[in-house]
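Hi R.,

As promised, here are both runs. First protein below:
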Amino acid sequence: VTGFVDLPTTEVDDVNDVLLEPGMAYAAAGDAGVFIIDTRKPDEPHIIGSFDTAGHASALEKSGNSLFVADGSNGLIVLDVADPTSPVSIAWSTESSGGYDALELDGSSLYAFRPGLVRVYDLPLSGEMKEWRTDRSVSGTRMLLSDLHLIVSDSKTITIYEKGTLNTLGGVYVVDNIIFGVAAQQNTIYA
């Protein structure tokens, strides 16, 4: 271990996701929201900013100065982190039927996932997000975005969707084994 940073223990119940980029780390810290950590000196990382989201920060993606946060029952929020010491909310969606567990960026699209649903937002996002390009009811508990496809899986099935349209392309049902994870490389899916 080169260095570590203590997050406020009275606020942080868990760290669900960490997003790394050169000199900076972003931590989705559950009910405590998002912490921004300066990692330019790896042996002395320190918190330089935070944003207390209204929900349970569970997943992160970033494009430019926009940090996308899956925020539990609060839905999806977008933070402007151009000034990492003072992040500002620039877009939000309130999901009455539950929040998102995973986020994936693909060019100018953001895929937001929770078991049973994938929703695709067009970027950039601002203000209250009441519209999205498409969504799809899905059967699965995990999402993976490959170069060519969106893959949704659970312990017994893998379903492959076309990126963008979310049309079903095919699927696999596993009879005697349990799927623990899924990976994709070009046209090959590994389970």
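And here is the second one, sequence first, then its structure tokens:
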Amino acid sequence: GAGANGCDHIGGGLTHVKIPPPPEAQNQLIARRQITEAGVYMYRSILVPTDGSKLSTRAVTQAVAFARATGARLTTLCVMPEFLVRPTAGFTLPESMLEPVRKQLEAERRAECQAIVDRVCTEATAAGVACAGVLASSAAPYEAIIKQATESKCDLIIMASHGRRGLQGMLLGSETQKVLTHSKIPVLVVR
């Protein structure tokens, strides 16, 4: 049941902290003090992977509010897909023709990802949250997400239930499902 400090204690020792929308500065300090006094573990470093999609942007907004309420710092990650050439039966192009295309596609995706992480850091900074933006390239985004969480010493990942590719699993996107399966730290999924 709900305690006087606004926390719901769930069976098995888990605690669900109700975090209100970003309050005025004074109320925020009181909320932080109440959370700390209640003995609830406070997250100090949050990773929020994003692809710039509408749902991913909603996860960013939630992550910024959560980080602000708990005093955590934020790391945002945009994973660029690796340029892969799949041979088609009877049709191949020489590497000399593919290289300029690969470079152009990578440059465009890098610029798009940089703009995405810049927007996240601008939103976080405006809310008073420390933020670092990271770009990564990987054919397996979930691996890059877990690797970055480790490298940034994050103790929570907040991510969208699915990204640009839409619903690839029954309920969750395939990358989110893989992060949930393989991550050794908690993952908060935003729908």
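A quick note on the second one: The two ends are 25 Å apart (CA to CA). Let me know what you think.

Best,
J.
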